[in-house]
Specification:
The protein is built from one helix and eleven strands, in the order ββββββββαβββ. By secondary structure, the protein is mainly beta. A seven-stranded antiparallel β-sheet has the order 4-7-8-1-11-10-5, with no helix packed on it. The longest helix is centred in the last third of the chain and has 4 residues.
Length: about 150
């Protein structure tokens, strides 16, 4: 049996802001701090494996290799495309792949053969979570075998 390391790029919709508010420079009046300027910045994340962001309840299936198990590794990036629309890139292990499937793995592991259920995206930095619905699976790449 083999384990495949895959990269899955998908588009999902949910209650995700396209911008967030952060505190800027302090505002003083007569030498007293009265407030901070509010800066609106794009809400995106391009680093891998931050403790501030997580995905829960991730489930996927591929009917043509249904005897396998699928394990999300918690490694991912995301890019907000617009208000509520997010592109995710996830690392998923496909475990217990039989040897007789390896020769055809590129045709078996494809966006057309993949189903991903709704999942929860958590942001512990800005304190929100959102139920995400997958609207498109952009690509699936098998990176390596274990």
């Amino acid at each position: 049996m083999n384990t495949l390391i895959t990269s899955i790029k998908l588009i999902a919709k949910g209650d995700i802001p396209s911008q967030v508010e952060v505190l800027g420079q302090p505002i003083y009046e007569k030498g007293k701090l009265i407030s901070f300027e509010i800066i609106h910045q794009p809400y995106n994340y391009q680093e891998v494996n931050s403790l501030d962001y997580s995905i829960e309840n991730f489930n996927m299936s591929m009917p043509n290799i249904s005897d396998c198990t699928y394990r999300f590794t918690d490694y991912f990036t995301f890019n907000v495309l617009s208000e509520g629309e997010v592109e995710f890139e996830l690392c998923v292990l496909i475990e217990n792949v039989s040897n007789n499937l390896i020769d055809n793995i590129d045709s078996l592991v494809s966006p057309a053969n993949l189903t991903i259920d709704t999942f929860i995206f958590n942001d512990d930095c800005y304190f929100f979570d959102s139920c995400m619905t997958v609207t498109k699976i952009v690509s699936v790449e098998v990176g390596d075998f274990l």
